[in-house]
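quick one, 225 residues, struct below
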Amino acid sequence: MSRLMQGDCVEIMSRFPGEAVDFILTDPPYLVNYRDRSGRNIAGDKTDEWLQPACDQMFRVLKRDSLMVSFYGWNAADKFVGAWKAAGFRIVGHIVFAKPYASKSAFVGYAHESAYVLAKGRPPLPASPLPDVMNWKYTGNRHHPTEKPVSCLQPLIESFTTPAGIVLDPFAGSASTCVAAALSGRRYVGIELLPEYHAAGQRRLAQVRRAMQSPAANDELPEAA
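---
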């Protein structure tokens, strides 16, 4: 079962059975009303009415004794932490991805991305824990205005799941998590609200499937696929 779905993630997840997925890796809107240089924006990035319902559903569909890794907007950290805890998650780790560039400068240059590691129940510890500071590779944001690099997501999936696991991304964007799961040999379910990013994700996944079926013709899968 691997699928990239288009629609509202709260409504779609409400139809999933409880404790159906093994790991959640997601990059929700940061609540900053972001718009890139070309004018692209992200649904749900202005207001937070979706935040608690989405967290409640993510907790419900995640298996007991499992993990979620979620990126977040640092200037809305109180809202994210409050929603995660209200849903039932425990904070068990924090990861900083160091960028080789500053995406914006104000009082300081913004040269990192952050994600929390959140637990439902008591997940087992990984055999070889990842460092909590990792390098970031710029994607060019070709498919999505806040596209996350597959090279950062794949180690998380491989550390926190087994090959039989199902990875969920309710805010899939252009499907970077799904691409990383596919390359890791995991099943995935992605959900994206906006049709244009869902279509971009479908194209990326089709390219990855072709490359994996014909490895002799593909010496290396492109980072952003």
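The chain has one domain: 3-217.
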